[in-house]
Write a structure and sequence with these properties.
disordered N terminus; alpha/beta; Alkaline Phosphatase, subunit A; 20 strands; globular; 4-stranded antiparallel β-sheet
Length: 519
């Protein structure tokens, strides 16, 4: 089942992607314990700001052989959606199995315990069951790239050990191209880096994960290893070879479709025109930026490959559940928008691949609507770990085992004053209380790009009315809180955002710029 390497890549990038393909002798735990005597392990991999730009999802521009291999060996969820298209709220949601209306976290930089002090997180629950829980990189929120190398807005209850990699792209941050000087996370920024994979933050993270797997193979200790990559979040930084492997001229930039704006409710219009600097980019510049995003995706794929190869070569693959996911989607010019923060498919839909240990006889792909809150009960069920009764997610194991078609008929995403559900065919979005600010209705069968709002279409009225009922039920359910959750802090405090300082810059005592590093 588990292939050692991916083939068919061009020679320019193959050497980088093949790193770690050498097979070590499998290691059995202490005293010769057999795998059947040991608990199932979890390798939980999270990418940052990754949309479905993967070969397994039909993208032909990127080179993602390792994730495509994982997809061939597991289940690909084609219709998975985040609960809030922003890093911090989404991560708090999937790590607790709770909707944002239950966590009360709707902003970045909110510590989990300042909102829901008593919840037991996914990795914390595994700690309670005798597992070593290790975090490498970004799982809960970080200001990316501002707080790389620190603990970010982490939850110390969740881990036995944490590792915060810091790589070359941080030390050479002053070289990064950006639409706004010395701003890299909230605006488009990119750089083809010098150096090797292992010098970059995510390359260091992959190396740390490889070392952890070697140690676990030797000790036989059960583990929940969470590996959080900081890419492809801006800045789109990766070694030059990944850029050179892509044809910039082949990068297609979607039409902004400004003529469709009047058909949208005002909040929807604002969401896709929220960043003036990123609107109406000249095509050559937009192609350069999109090439950088795709290159960074390929770079992340290569690091995933290094970790998967080590998982196999140590003999751990046969007793390890592998989950790969992103915190939310990402616009690359669709609807004239870049980055996240909308209720369109591009921002809500995420890649989700789950590979159980052992042979894969389950479902290879499904279009059933699923949510990231479903990760908690799914992972727990595979490991035989009991889930707190307040967790809102539903296990996807039955879908993967082909004993049920779906766990629910829709997936819910919330963004500010809007809420949206996706079925296996339609999307309905409501803005304001009871739709006071308008509706959007899209038919993905005939309009997968969500360009034709059918909310005012007379023939679609019965469908609109029926979906409104479902959306109201889903919205009310996502705000229901069980007493067993413990305390819930309404409007939890937002931690002060860390002022961004690029290494080498100098400032006056009042915080104003004294001198920027240029070389």
């Amino acid at each position: 089942m588990f292939h050692k390497c991916a083939f068919g890549l061009g020679p320019l990038i193959a050497a980088l992607l093949m790193t770690g393909c050498g097979r070590d002798a499998p290691t059995i735990g202490p005293e010769g314990a057999s795998p059947s005597d040991q608990k199932m392990n979890v390798l939980f991999i999270v990418a940052d700001d990754l949309n479905c730009a993967l070969g397994a999802y039909g993208d032909s521009l990127v080179q993602t052989p390792h994730l495509d291999r994982l997809a061939e060996e597991g289940t690909v969820f084609q219709n998975a959606h985040c609960q809030y298209p922003l890093c911090g709220p989404s991560r708090a949601s999937f790590m607790t199995g709770l909707y944002t209306g239950q966590t009360q976290i709707h902003e970045n930089n909110v510590y989990l315990r300042s909102a829901v002090p008593d919840v037991v997180t996914l990795s914390q629950r595994f700690r309670q069951n005798g597992y070593q829980a290790v975090r490498i990189g970004k799982i809960f929120h970080y200001d990316n790239p501002g707080t790389i190398g620190t603990a970010g807005i982490d939850d110390r209850h969740s881990w036995d050990q944490t590792i915060n990699p810091y790589g070359r792209e941080k030390r050479e941050e002053y070289k990064i191209n950006t639409l706004k000087p010395r701003r890299y996370g909230g605006t488009l920024s990119w750089l083809a880096m010098d150096g090797e994979d292992e010098e970059q933050t995510d390359g260091i993270g992959a190396t740390e994960a490889v070392e952890q797997l070697e140690a676990f193979a030797s000790s036989g200790d059960p583990f929940f290893l969470a590996l959080g990559f900081f890419r492809p979040h801006t800045p789109f930084a990766a070694p030059k070879a990944y850029f050179e492997a892509l044809d910039r001229g082949a990068m297609v930039i979607p039409d902004a479709h400004d003529e469709l704006l009047p058909s949208l409710p005002v909040p929807a219009r604002k969401s896709i025109r929220a960043q003036p600097l990123q609107i109406g980019l000249a095509e050559p510049l937009a192609q350069e930026i999109k090439q950088a995003y795709c290159a960074t995706v390929s770079f992340v794929d290569a690091q995933v490959g290094r970790v998967l190869d080590k998982l196999e070569s140590t003999g751990l693959a046969d007793r390890t559940l592998v989950v790969f996911v992103s915190d939310h989607g990402y616009h690359l010019g669709e609807h004239g928008h870049w980055q996240k923060g909308t209720l369109f498919q591009d921002a809500t839909r995420v890649p989700l691949i789950i590979r159980p240990p052992g042979s894969m006889d389950g479902l290879p792909s499904t279009n059933a609507p699923v949510e990231l809150v479903d990760l908690y009960p799914t992972i727990a069920e595979y490991a035989g770990v009991e889930v707190p009764d307040y967790v809102s997610g539903r296990s996807l194991k039955g879908v993967m085992d082909k004993v049920q078609d779906t766990v629910r008929g829709s997936a819910l995403t919330v963004w500010r004053k809007g809420r949206s559900i996706v079925t296996d065919r339609y999307r309905l979005t409501e803005w304001g209380q009871n739709g006071a600010m308008g509706y959007e209705l899209y038919d993905h069968l005939s309009d997968p790009a969500e360009l034709i709002n059918l909310a005012s279409d007379v023939e679609s009225a019965p469908l609109l009315d029926s979906m409104k009922v479902v959306l109201l039920r889903r919205w009310d359910g996502s705000r229901s809180v069980s007493e067993s959750m413990g305390r819930v802090i309404v409007q939890p405090p937002v931690a002060q955002k860390t002022p961004h300082i690029t290494f080498g810059d100098e400032y006056h005592i009042d915080g104003s710029m004294k001198q920027e590093r240029t070389e």
